[in-house]
Known about the structure:
Layout: H1 16-32, E1 37-39, H2 43-51, E2 57-60, H3 68-75, E3 78-79, E4 88-91, E5 116-120, E6 125-133, E7 141-144, H4 150-161, E8 168-173, E9 176-180, E10 185-188
Parallel strand pairs: 2-3, 2-4, 4-5, 5-8
Antiparallel strand pairs: 1-9, 6-7, 6-10, 8-9
Amino acid sequence: MSAVDLGAVLPGFDDPAFGSQAAFRAALQALSRPGTIVECERAAYSLCLALLDQDTRLWLSPTAQALGPSLRFHTGCVVVPEVSQADFVMAGTVREMPTLESLAAGSDEAPQRSATLIVEVDALADDGGWKLGGPGIAGEARLRVPALGERFLEEWKANGRRFPRGVDAFLCSGGRVCGLPRTTRIEVLMFRGES
């Protein structure tokens, strides 16, 4: 591992064992109950601290690059230049999010070799916009992510068609996180003219 500029390193968890366990539990809860918004302090950064290790390859978007030294120092992960090489992909904004098709999708024999996307969004709410269905959802769940529009929804449908291959995602907004496993179906709610 190349040298890390210690002046650029942000603090990790105050209590590494407790902090890592809490962030890992938040990640599990978010993925096992898609659409549920889970509290997780410094969500995107904390998820990376808890989920990355020395065997992990990470791609960072331009606005997330500043976290590179901290994540390398605290987790030992390797930052890679090509998104297709990454086990984890962190986008600091929706505008910088790579297409889902460009991320590693695993194989039919090893679907677990796919990438996990972590993206910062402006806001998360559970009061509509999208209707979610699939494993882990009793009936349906509602989710509103104003920053993610039609392009993402089309890519997500294509992602689901690749099952068992495909990308899982964490949507983060400040201290909140929501999980979207590849098995989650998203339908846009029609508020006008609903019967």
